[in-house]
Write a structure and sequence with these properties.
about 150 residues; mainly alpha; globular
Length: about 150
């Protein structure tokens, strides 16, 4: 059996289960989970959210904290609801990339465990940027030509 035919065979076996809309929702929920958990944590510990903004030099800290909370929750909601999913995914990709360069500047740390952990976090966030970019690409490819705003 050639590699191509093996791939075709396996895709045929997995397609029915993975093509289910519930699997798509679960995958998108997993992708957005940090953008739901983070704002909820900030809401329940608003002084901590302000301290985080101050730590990263974002002033006025309360405005940035509220902005991050509203932005992350609303973009996650749009992605999960399938409303302008492509735009929300691109917005979270840009936000994540910017936040990664603000929060995980591993190249400024001395060699050691802290640097390694920051580097791992940096590249994990780059992976999230890639995943959100793929969501946007897929939505525009599948639904962009039809002009549909709602994609679920």
């Amino acid at each position: 059996m050639s590699l191509f035919s093996l791939e075709k065979h396996l895709a045929g076996r997995f397609r029915p289960g993975l093509a289910d809309r519930r699997i798509l929702f679960i995958g998108l929920l997993a992708l957005c989970s940090a953008y739901i958990q983070g704002p909820l944590t900030k809401i329940f510990d608003f002084p901590g959210a302000i301290a985080e903004m101050e730590h990263f030099g974002l002033h006025p800290a309360p405005i940035f904290a509220v902005g991050v909370i509203v932005f992350e929750l609303s973009m996650s909601a749009l992605i999960l609801a399938g409303i302008f999913r492509w735009a929300a995914a691109l917005a979270l990709a840009v936000f994540t990339l910017a936040a990664t360069f603000i929060a995980l500047r591993f190249w400024e740390l001395p060699p050691g465990m802290e640097r390694s952990m920051a580097m791992n976090g940096f590249f994990e966030h780059v992976g999230l940027v890639g995943a959100f970019t793929l969501v946007a690409w897929h939505e525009l490819r599948e639904h962009g030509a039809s002009g549909k705003g709602r994609t679920s």
